[in-house]
Amino acid sequence: MRRLLLLGLALAGCSSIQLGAPLGAPTAEAPSFPLGLLWERDADGAFGPSAARVTDRYVVVGTRNGEVVVIDRETGRVEGTGEFGDSVEGQLATSPDGETLYVPTAERRGGVEAYDVRRGRRQWRWRGGAVQAGVARVEETVVVGTLDGRVLGLDVATGDERWERPATDNAQIHAAPQPLGADVVVADDAGRVVRLDAATGAERWAVGVGGPVYAAPAVAGDAVYVSTTRGGVTRLDAATGAVVWQTQDDDPLRVTTVAPGPSLAVGFSDGSVRALDPATGAERWRVVGDGNVTGEPAWVGDRVVFGTLDKRLVVVDGATGREEWSTELRGRVKSALAVGGGLLVVLVEPRHVVAFHTAP
User: Fold this and answer.
1) How does pLDDT run across 258-277, given as a tens digit for each residue?
2) 233 in Cβ contact with 272 (< 8 Å)
3) Amino acid 168: pLDDT
4) CA-closest candidate to residue 309, choices 339, 284, 275, 273
5) Are the C-beta atoms of residues 128 and 146 closer than 8 Å to each other?
6) Residue 88 CB partners (closer than 8 Å, separation 6+)
7) Taking a C-beta distance cutoff of 8 angstroms, is the pair 279, 288 a contact?
């Protein structure tokens, strides 16, 4: 019956999240160690590479069966499930007041939907192309990178196109756009990284990083860190786009989004997690496990946490890389980890959301 209901909602173009309240404010509050399992919830669908979105009230996840699931942060109870028709793989975004959720959809009829979670109704829908990477809200603009390589700015109130930049060299956009002040940083699979004025689409700078970019850039202070699918990590000056340093592995490995902290924690598809010096890119330590690391690690205090494709969640000392704790999960971890609201949230194959908190 539930599947028939969801099918009916999809055909009608409807969603069914009605919380009666905003999602709440984003929060980066981390749990303390030791970690303990708080809850585990079946989301009824697989996940893309992006992390869950955590607020001070909810955990919000998109799934590849076209749903967005809103989970109570404390209890793990599902408070709302919305059907958006196409696969939801990319980065979700919210309005500053937490009332509007911006949902990207990735398939042929994909686009972006702005949805009022408090009242349970669609505000607008833009169906201009598949959005696999996700969206970013920057002031009064929702910035969208499409799978066919275009970058667009949509009006937050109406969804109307305010500006559009055409694709460059037939490139595609797989990496989620990242806010940088009133601007946004966008990278494509031709290895081109651009900083754009979010309101107008005007280019601030553009630079090539020498390899396809599938992982979202990381913005931290005056730095933009970009990972490639060929074993490279580049630090760019956020103001000018100048290359500060660049590292390159001997093998063409896929590299996760950089997790900034006391060091830069980065996962590689050879099963290693490495800490890089933010100032120079020099390697400080490396830990190698049995399973590839494809999801962005997370800093929890002075420790680094990462999930693997051999179904493990691992905690290492952020200064030395020494393993301190690990646990076996029910499935592989291919998505980025999320920290917020006193939780560490892990998206686990085939379709489970797992929340860890400070153990009593």
Assistant:
1) 999 999 999 999 999 999 99
2) no
3) 87
4) 273
5) yes
6) 48, 62, 63, 64, 66, 67, 68, 103, 104, 105, 106
7) no
Confidence of residue 15 (pLDDT cuts 50, 70, 90): low
In sequence order, what are the beta bridge partners of 356? 37, 344
Q: Residue 229 contacts by C-beta under 8 Å, 6 or more apart in sequence?
A: 189, 211, 212, 213, 214, 252, 254, 255
Cα dihedral sign, 78-81-87-91: negative
Cβ–Cβ < 8 Å for 293, 305: no
Confidence of residue 175 (pLDDT cuts 50, 70, 90): very high
- Residue 210 has a CB neighbour count (10 Å cut-off) of 15
DSSP states along 107-131: STT-EEEEEETTTTEEEEEE-SS--
The pTM of this model reads 0.94
Tokens 């979010």 sit on residue: 198
Per-residue model confidence (pLDDT) at position 360: 86
Q: Chain-wide mean pLDDT for the chain?
A: 93
Measure the CA–CA gap between 354 and 322, rounded to whole angstroms.
24
Please tell me the distance from the alpha carbon of residue 239 to that of residue 221, in angstroms, as a whole number.
10
